[in-house]
Amino acid sequence: MSSVKLIQKNKKAFFNYEIIEELEVGISLVGTEVKSVREGKCSFSDSYIVPKNGSLMLIGFLIQPYTHGNIFNHKTDRTRRLLAHKMEIKKFTRKVNERGFTIVPLEIYLKGNLVKMKIALARGKNVRDKKEAIKERDMNRDTRRQLRELNSY
Asked: Which Gene Ontology terms cover its molecular function (predicted)?
């Protein structure tokens, strides 16, 4: 049994997209990138995944340079290849091309000593859906606050 340590979660993806299907993939990284990810120095800022030549490419995912690195440190915003089974890649590619879905990264974590990423097939939300999500979140927060105040008496 390998332990899973969550490094970072893409909260913006859950707000902007309706998640249809999830998949766990590996990431092709160089040594200093792995060390930097272990320190938690990565960012999902506007990252997305594109199927290209029978593989999935992660674009816009920033991994900061390793603090103890030297002149051979990695570039922060390079395109990285995601590692998945060929049939899973074909399935996701087909759905992106036919139905207009988007593939977004959801979270990055360590599974044992490997860096893994959870990606998802997603459909963009409308502005109305986003407003409803905000309203529902605010209502839940208010009810939790009121329950906490009632229980404190």
From this structure: RNA binding
